[in-house]
Design goal:
The chain is an all-alpha fold and 134 residues long. The chain is built from 6 helices and no strands. Helix 1 packs across helix 5 and helix 5 packs across helix 6. The longest helix has 23 residues.
Length: 134
């Protein structure tokens, strides 16, 4: 139960941060991914700000904690960098560039009943289901 509450609170905090920063807006994301005239660097500043906030906490955790509070151990990467990972990351990037959505902002927009998210999120879930069946 405690994990579910922490997960819900974390999701709400993340979604709120996406909305406040404007990163739930596909126009801002596509503006960042458009190089040249009309480039919007705001996503760069959001990511930089996130690193400035999270890096000290991450370093503190690595030094003083052997496990997170609600889990037995820290997660480790599942495997090596291989062709499947590179292909999947490339496919993710192409989809992000075409739609202006990645999973977090897509769920925020779905909760706001934005039209594009009503199509994107079911397609994303279907793709995740298909990938899991492979």
């Amino acid at each position: 139960m405690r994990r579910a509450v922490v997960a819900a609170a974390s999701g709400l905090l993340f979604g709120g941060g996406l909305m406040i920063s404007g990163m739930a807006s596909t126009e801002n994301v596509l503006g960042f991914l458009t190089l040249g005239e009309g480039w919007n660097p705001s996503l760069l500043f959001v990511m930089g700000g996130a690193l400035l906030v999270s890096l000290p906490g991450h370093l503190w955790l690595k030094r003083y904690r052997s496990a997170p509070w609600l889990h037995a151990s820290f997660a480790k990467p599942a495997g090596a960098i291989d062709h499947r990972l590179l292909f999947g990351a490339s496919l993710f990037g192409v989809g992000w560039g075409l739609a202006g959505f990645c999973p977090g902002p897509a769920l925020v927009n779905l909760s706001l009943m934005q039209g594009a998210a009503l199509v994107f999120v079911p397609a994303m879930l279907a793709g995740a289901w298909l990938a899991g069946r492979r």
